[in-house]
Design a protein that fits this description.
The complex is a heterotrimer. By secondary structure, chain A is mainly alpha-helical. Chain A contains 7 helices and no strands. The chains are: A mainly alpha, B mainly alpha, C alpha+beta. The interface between B and C is medium-sized, with 33 and 34 residues.
Chain lengths: 213, 454, 379
């Protein structure tokens, strides 16, 4: 139990700090922007559809007790996010999101779940930290988040026509952002080698004899 | 008491022959014709033009777009499903010939309607969910698989201007949406709550993830040669004649072609990589617990994927829809300024579609042929082949291609030399192969070669 | 079974216990294995022996001597001729009967044709288990013609009941000799065709070579017989080394595993020995048809068979290896004890010890390479 209490205390402290800082900023007199409601076009409808999909997916990840349902929710959330990228004319990024997160990460998550030893049991459950505390946290954070979402002066741009962005991304990676790019790949390489080392250790224990002599 | 089976009819009634032939010719004509007609017409620009010509209020544009989307989606999904059905029939006929038996021959002339009979049978069967299975995921899995399959049709080209939408990340898009198929297979394997299904699901995931790497890297070779990710752009960078195809224009592309083809076979779970559902090992793998329509959906995808993989390979390496001696720009020029293109443009588009379909179907036949010839590899050999041979080969091809492109920019002629050289080698190999087949048949059948009951 | 379940108490849970069979596509009938696996690698596979037990030996004590002959067909339905022959020879030894030469020759011919038919099923099913479905169909097509020939000889395609105590049931029909010779001409080229189709296929060789290697000593210790024993490099064939019937008059070779594509005693050796044996069977059949003596096909057998008290052992080289019948007579018209020693039973016994470390797919190759016929295991 003490671990749970520590987590709660840390979370509560974070929320209090957050609310405090924002409250101070609000007191300084942040201006709420005017909300304009235009006619609902096709693009807007699609946007809300994908946003709802992302939201529902994320909610499933958090709320479902079955880990595979959570994984499925993650799939919906990631696909929704990927679709939202398209609204920013970032089709390359959208497809990359699909490839990396669904083709790679999600499949590996499912794979890992399947290879756990409790596999014979269909109903694997997620650990929950308590509904009441979570609800309280929600009540505390939602107003803050809503305020931030409304008060922030979002940079608005009109989405450009879909144009090939691959070349720009490639150029950016290999010129201006070369160092971070290489560092990221180094980190990934280290992770990969680490995974191999961990995985190999277990195999060494028993090397079965394949022939009867 | 002897059972009186009704003897097979001596000759098929003329009506059945006529109906079958009409359907066999009509179904491809109908679907390919609809693709030919609808894909250029249902483009936003054309819709706008048609609406303004007809004097309809521009506020109808959005409903028109949505309707066009639905029509195209319906067309493409049906194309995939029907093609998948027809190819099950064709595969069984070919398998029958390979195995010196007859194959389906009852439903219609030559058993052509067997795929409809099968579909009806599947629909009528009970949709069984195992008692301890995760019912939600178990039911959902086939839809993931079908979605991943159907989404690829968005960018698969059929001809010069015949593509639902030519995304500028086309190839990349195809690679990524097929990931949904893996998700579906994994979920089906796990949700069935059967050990055989789980085995199949895990095998499928391991296999598809592994083979995505050589497939993805070997795709870089045509991308690097064409300088674009768009499927149509890659085809336009090639030509109609064999030495203008990417596969022969660059020695590394030839290797990449085989790497990609092998990896695609593995991703589509076709023999020799049919480990996920290896019937002699895992009963039916991830399909073990499925029945009825859900089972049919898996099979629809399995056979439909033959078209997808053949079309991708055709697009990337075999010149796609390029018509020999007719350049794509020439066809562009024929379009005319009107809202609807000119008749000559439609004509050349139909020809380009015929070229593309012929190449793709030839590859489909190769896939079928491989399935009924080769045994299955073991799971460690499958992994070994991927990681020890295909992945290094794909990377080597990619690096070689980069240098090759540099060389081409200096001396453009080497592409032609390589193209002509490899084309000649390919033709010679094909002739030698045909001779060898002829000798083998002669060794068994003697001088006369019997093709009468084909 | 019990041992395995007990052993699992307190085991880590990363091992999976799979019930392999009895309803499984490649269990060649209704075999049942309990397979412990760690992922794809097997910890061990325990065959359940006794699943198909039908008390055939006990039936042998309840029916008359000739009455048991149809039951022997059911011991090994893929190669029933040998089960017939073994039982007939054993009872003939009890009766001290001399079988006429023509019957001996017909027995040899029918047995060799049956051996080809059985080996065709074996190699075809093996290819099918490895994942190539075409060779099986081709092999069954050839077996169909063989079945036609055997049907013309004895009226049955599967459970022949052709050999009788003291001879064989029928002489050859007219024209049968030429039909068989004509078929054998075709069959000799067919073996080459089959080799081209699958035997040297790179994937096939890789799947079988160096898999489930059984050393010569292990093969002898476990009592493997027939092609399984010869595949391990042991040069032993009852037809040559303990001859019976017409076999001393024929010229033939005994193919032995030499590590054709890998190690001696691997699954490929067991497979390829069968391929080579089919050619030898064809050779024996030709010789037998050419040197066929004239005369009776049945010895003078008393109407009521009532051997003196005593015991007899017969050994024949069945398609699945050495098959022995041990018959004890107590002087009545029913046997006191009939015991059949079959190749599949001993082949099953080695599976548990050879399985650790094999992959699940190798288990299939192993079962297929032993050419196990389920009813022969338990009788």
């Amino acid at each position: 139990m003490p671990r749970k209490i520590v987590i709660w205390v840390v979370l509560a402290a974070l929320v209090v700090t957050f609310v405090g800082v924002l409250g101070a900023r609000m007191a300084e007199g942040a201006v709420l922007p005017e909300i304009i409601l235009g006619p609902l076009g096709l693009t807007d409808a699609l946007f809300y559809l994908f946003a709802a999909m992302t939201f529902a997916g994320a909610a499933t990840v958090a709320l479902s007790k079955n880990i595979l349902h959570s994984a499925l929710g993650l799939l919906a959330a990631l696909m929704g996010t990927g679709s939202l990228y398209v609204f920013l004319s970032a089709d390359f990024l959208a497809v990359t999101q699909l490839l990396v997160y669904i083709g790679g990460v999600l499949v590996l998550i499912l794979f890992a779940v399947m290879l756990t030893n409790r596999i014979t049991e269909v109903k694997i459950s997620n650990a929950s930290l308590g509904l009441v505390g979570g609800g309280a946290l929600l009540v505390a954070t939602v107003p803050v988040l809503v305020f931030v979402a409304i008060a922030t002066p979002w940079a608005t741009i009109v989405p450009a026509e879909l144009a090939p962005t691959t070349r720009e991304i490639g150029n950016a990676f290999l010129t201006r952002w070369l160092l971070p790019f290489e560092l990221a790949s180094l980190v990934l390489l280290a992770t990969l080698i680490g995974a191999v080392v961990i995985a190999r250790k277990e195999l060494k224990q028993d090397e079965p004899d394949t022939s009867v002599s | 008491m002897p059972v009186n089976y009704s003897p097979p009819p001596k000759s098929t009634p003329k009506v059945i022959v006529a109906v079958t032939l009409a359907a066999a010719a009509g179904i491809p004509f109908l679907f390919l014709g609809l693709v030919l007609l609808l894909t250029p017409v249902l483009k936003p620009a054309t819709i706008d033009g048609l609406l303004s010509n007809a004097g309809i209020d521009p506020s109808w544009r959005t409903p028109a777009y949505v309707a066009a989307l639905f029509v195209l989606a319906l067309l493409m999904m049906n194309y995939g499903a029907i093609f998948s059905g027809v190819i099950t029939w064709w595969e069984r006929r070919v398998a029958g010939r390979i195995q010196s038996r007859i194959g389906p021959n009852r439903a219609g002339f030559g058993g052509f309607f067997i795929f409809i009979a099968d579909a009806v049978k599947m629909l009528l069967k009970e949709d069984l969910v195992p008692a301890d299975a995760d019912a939600l995921l178990f039911r959902a899995a086939p839809y993931f698989v079908v979605t991943g399959f159907a989404l690829t049709f968005v960018v698969l080209p059929f001809g010069h201007s015949l593509v639902v939408t030519d995304l500028n990340v086309g190839v990349f898009y195809v690679t990524s949406v097929t990931a949904l198929v893996v998700v579906g297979i994994l979920i089906s394997g796990w949700a069935s709550n059967s050990k055989w299904a789980l085995f199949g699901g895990v095998r499928a995931a391991a296999q598809v993830i592994s083979y995505e790497i050589p497939a993805g890297v070997s795709i870089f070779v045509p991308i690097a040669m064409a300088g674009t990710l768009s499927m149509q752009g890659i085809i336009r960078a090639q030509g109609g004649l064999p030495w203008e195809w990417f596969v022969f224009r660059n020695p590394a592309a030839l290797i990449a072609f085989f790497v990609l083809f092998t990896s695609q076979l593995a991703e589509a779970n076709r023999t020799p990589f049919d480990l996920p559902e290896a019937e002699s090992e895992l009963v039916a793998g991830y399909l073990s617990e499925y029945s009825g329509f859900r089972f049919a959906l898996f099979f629809l995808v399995e056979w439909g994927n033959i078209w997808v993989l053949s079309a991708i390979v055709t697009t990337l390496f075999l010149g796609g829809w390029q018509i020999p001696f007719v350049s794509a720009e020439y066809i562009d020029g024929l379009r005319g300024a009107g809202v609807l293109p000119s008749l000559a443009w439609w004509g050349w588009n139909a020809v380009s579609m015929a070229v593309f379909t012929a190449k793709t179907i030839a590859l489909c036949n190769l896939v079928i042929w491989l399935r009924w010839t080769l045994p299955r590899v073991r799971v460690d050999q499958m992994m070994g082949l991927c990681w020890k041979y295909l992945v290094p080969a794909a990377f080597a091809c990619f690096v070689f291609t980069l240098f090759w492109e540099l060389a081409v920019s200096v001396a453009p002629r080497i592409e032609l030399v390589s193209g002509v050289g490899f084309t000649v080698i390919a033709v010679v190999l094909a002739v030698l192969f045909a001779r060898r087949v002829h000798q083998n048949i002669q060794a068994v059948q003697g001088e006369k070669i019997d093709l009468s009951n084909w | 079974m019990e041992r395995l379940i007990l052993r699992r108490v307190g085991k880590p849970e990363d091992e999976m216990l799979i019930n392999f069979g009895p309803q499984h596509p490649s269990t060649h009938g209704v075999l049942n294995f309990l397979v412990e696996t760690d992922g794809e690698v097997m910890k061990r596979a325990v065959p359940e022996i006794g699943y198909l037990h039908r008390a055939l030996e006990k039936i042998g004590e309840a029916v008359s001597y000739p009455g048991f002959m149809p039951y022997t067909d059911r011991i090994d339905y893929v190669a029933a001729m040998f089960a017939n022959e073994g039982y007939a020879i054993a009872v003939e030894k009890l009766l001290k009967l001399e079988v006429p030469p023509r019957a001996q020759w017909l027995r040899a011919i029918s047995c060799e044709l049956c051996r080809i038919a059985s080996h065709l099923v074996a190699v075809g099913a093996m290819a099918s288990d490895i994942g190539a479905s075409t060779p099986l169909v081709h092999a069954l097509r050839e077996r169909e013609t063989l079945n036609d020939l055997i049907e013309a000889l004895c009226g049955a395609r599967l459970t022949y009941n052709y050999h009788r105590i003291g001879g064989v049931a029928y002489d050859m029909p007219t024209g049968w000799r030429d039909r068989v010779l004509k078929y054998l001409d075709h069959f000799d080229t067919y073996i080459q065709e089959f080799d081209r189709l699958i035997s040297f296929n790179a994937i096939y060789v890789k799947r079988l070579a160096n898999v489930a290697v059984i050393s010569k000593a292990a093969a002898i210790d476990y009592g493997l017989v027939g092609p399984n024993l010869r595949g391990s490099g042991m040069d032993w064939d009852v037809r040559r080394d303990a001859p019976y019937g017409a076999y001393p008059s024929f010229n033939f070779e005994v193919p032995v595993g030499r590590g054709f594509q890998g190690t001696i005693g691997d699954a490929y050796d067991r497979y390829f020995v069968r391929m080579l044996e089919m050619a030898q069977s064809s050779r024996i059949t030709r010789q037998a048809l050419e040197t066929m003596p004239e005369g009776e096909t049945m010895a003078k057998v008393p109407r009521k068979i009532k051997p003196e008290a005593g015991e007899a052992l017969s050994r024949v080289e069945s398609a699945r290896g050495e098959m022995a019948y041990y018959v004890i007579s107590d002087g009545t018209d029913k046997a006191y004890r009939v015991r059949a020693r079959t190749g599949s039973f001993t082949a099953m016994s080695i599976i548990e010890d050879i399985s650790p470390g094999l992959m699940v797919a190798d288990l299939i190759a192993l079962i297929a390479s032993f050419d196990v016929v389920a009813p022969e295991i338990d009788r």
